Amino acid sequence: MKDFVRLMKALSDPNRVKIITILGGRELCVCELTALLGVAQPTVSKHLRILEDTGLVSFRKEGNWIIYRLNTECQDQARTMLGLVGQWLDQVPEIQGLRQRLPEVHNLRKAMV
Q: Is the pTM of this model over 0.85?
């Protein structure tokens, strides 16, 4: 029961839901997520930490960058929720708008190298 409640709390914030929906399409660093969401870097980092603690998100290091992605090895319940969130929000205009901006923010990381 405790894991379920923690998972639901992680998914109760609109920015965290946006993050996992966007990460369903590609890996992103904090600076890219910050640019997409239009929120401060510490806020994005806090959201990522919560998602990581629930097992929904994992990361890898690439030089100086920390690249985040959905955790494909998360618990079955979490994997099911990720699938449902993706299905529910796939056609939402706000999510589609964020996805359209992905190439623009991807170039942001390249410009910072």
A: no
